[in-house]
Amino acid sequence: MCGIAGFISPEKNDLSIDRGALLGLMCEAIAHRGPDDQGTVVMGRAALGMRRLAIIDLVTGQQPMFSDDKRYAIVFNGEIYNYRELKADLESRGYQFRTNSDTETILHAFEAYGVDCVQRLRGMFAFAIWDSVEEVLFLARDRVGKKPLFYSLLPDGTFVFGSEIKSVLLHPDVRREIDTKALDSYLTFGYVPESQCIFSGISKVQPGCFLRFSTGKIAEDRYWSFPLSHDSGRTSDQMVTELRETLEEAVRIRMISDVPLGAFLSGGVDSSAVVGLMSKISPEPVKTFSIGFNEDTFSELKYARIAADHFGTDHHEFIVTPDLVSIVDDLVWHFDEPFADPSSLPTYMVSKLAREHVTVVLSGDGGDELFAGYSRYLTYLSRSWSDRLPSPVKRICAKLADTAPESFPGKYFLNNLSHDPVGRYIDLVSHFNRQRRQKLYSAASFDRLNGSFACGESEFAHIASEQFNEDPLGHLLQLDSVTYLPSDVMVKVDRMSMASSLEARAPLLDHKLIELAGAIPTRFKVENGETKAIFKKAVSGLVPDEILYRQKQGFGVPIVEWINRELHDRIRETLLDGRATREYFNVEYIELLLNEHKERRRDHAYSLWLLFMLELWMDRYL
C-alpha cells in the first residue's frame, strides 16, 4: 500500500522548476500513506515518485520499479491478491522476476498484455507506468474506486498526477479555483462525485477506467462497469451456496500479508460475516476493533462484543466522545475536498486504534450496495404508489412543499411525492434538495452558477437507465454503487485508514463477488420487507442470529446532540461569519436552520454539519 505522485514535463530538459525537489515535496505531502520508504526517479520528461507502506515483500519491493530493459517504470498503490497466479503465468511465458512483489507482477503483465493487463488484476489499485520509448504515461484505477488517483493537464502541456489532491496542488501552475458544479453536487449529496472535482483544473481517473497521456492529449477508456441485477436462472439455493463460497474465497485471498492483520467489527451482518470467515481461516484469534459512543442509541458495541465472543477474537474497543470533534480540522486536510459524512470521525478513530496493533484490516464495506441493505430502499419502495399520481396532483404537492414553513412536518414528504421515480430517490438521498438549495444560495451565487444549478441531480438522473421502472431496486443498487459507494464510502475508508498508515481491504467488493451479486435478482435481495435477505441466508449458521436478524443501525454519529451542546457555539460562529456564507449563501436561511435545530423544531444536524465541513475546508485549502 502506497501513495504515488509525479508529472510529465513538455520537454526533457525543463529548467523552469527543480523537478527532483518538486517531486520530493509531492511525495512528502502524502507520507502518511507510506511511512516506510520514499522512492523517486526523474527520467526524460517523466518524474515518478511514491511513498511505501510495506505489506508484501518487505525487503525487495521498493519503487519506482523498472522493466529489465529500463523501458518501463511503475509506481503503484494498492494490493493485487492474485499476483502469485499471475506471476506463475508470466514466468511460463519467459518473464524473470527479481522480487516477490505484486508491483513487478503488474509491470510484467503490462509488458505481456498491454492495457488489457488490468482485466487480469484482482484487487485494489491505482498505478502509473511510464513508457520511456513511446513517451506515453499509462494510469489505471481499480474497478470500484477503492484507491484514488487525481490528475491535471496544465496549459503548457504538463501532466500532473497523484494519489491525493494535495500532491497535485503542490505543482506551482495548478490553480485553486472552485468548480461551482462540484460545489452544487457537494451541497446536494455531502460529497463531490467521482466525475467531478472541487478544483476546476483537477480531474479523477474514474473507477474501472484507464488513461493514456501522450503529447498533450488524454485518452480514457473503461474496462469494467458495475453490473445491473439480472436473473441468471439459478435457484435460490444454488445462489446461496455460490455466494458463501465466493465470499469465503474473497476473504481468504485478502488475508495474504507479511505484516500483522486484523478486522473492523461493527456488530453488523457484513463485518461479522467477514470476521467469522477470517476466524475459520486463521490459526490464531483474529484481532478485531470496534468503536462506540456514550449515547446508547448510536453505539453498536453490544453487538460487536457478541460477535467477538462468538468468534473468540482478540477484541479492542474505543469510545468516541464529543471533545474528539476537535480533530475535524485534521480530517479536512486528509480529505482534500469538502466531505460531510460524519461517520468519518469514528472511522478515523477506529483506524488509529487498529494501527496500534496491526498494519492491515479487513472491513465489511459494500454489502449494503450489493444486497440492498439500506433502509432508504424500503422507504423508496413504500412510496411507489406516488408514481401513479396525476401530474396536476404532483404540481400541487410541489407547490405546497415550496410554500410551507421549513419546520412544517410534511414539507419534505410532499416534495418527495412531487418527483418522477428517479427524482424521488435523488430527493431522498439529498442533504439540500433543489428546493432547499434555492433558499440557501444568495442571489449572486445564481449568477456565478451560470446555468449549472442542480448539476448534481442531473448527474444522477443521467446515470439512471431508461428501463428504470422495470426494476427500480436493481437500478437504485447500481446507482448507489457508482455514486455513493466510490464517492463517499470508499473515500471515507481510504482517507481515514491511510491517515493512520493503515491498509483497509474490502472482501465484499471483490469484483467476482460483485459480478455474482449482479446475477442475483432483486426479489431475492429484499423479501417481505427484509433487506439483504439472500446474503443473510448465505451467512446463516456463521453469524449469530442475534446479529443476523436485528434491526439495521448503520454507522451513525450523535451529531444531533453534539451540535446542540458541545459544538453549538463553534458551528454557529463559523457558519454565520464564514467564507462560504459570505461568498455563496443567504445568511438569513442559515440562521433559520441553526435556530430551528436548536429549538428542536426540525432536525437539521446533517445539513449544518455539511455547511460546517465546507467552511473548514475553505479555511484550510483556499
CATH topology title of the domain at 2-222: Glutamine Phosphoribosylpyrophosphate, subunit 1, domain 1
Q: How much is the average pLDDT?
A: 92
How are the strands of the biggest sheet laid out side by side?
2-3-1-9-8-10
Briefly note the structural class of the backbone: alpha+beta
CATH architecture of the domain at 2-222: 4-Layer Sandwich
What would the principal axes of the Cα set say about the shape?
globular
Strand content: 5-15%
Number of helices: 28
Percentage of helical residues? 40-55%
pLDDT < 50 stretches: none
- CATH H-level homologous superfamily name of the domain at 2-222: Aminohydrolase, N-terminal nucleophile (Ntn) domain
Main β-sheet description: 6 strands, antiparallel
Cα-atom radius of gyration: 24 Å
Count of DSSP E strands? 17
> Distance between termini?
30 Å
CATH classification, class level of the domain at 2-222? Alpha Beta
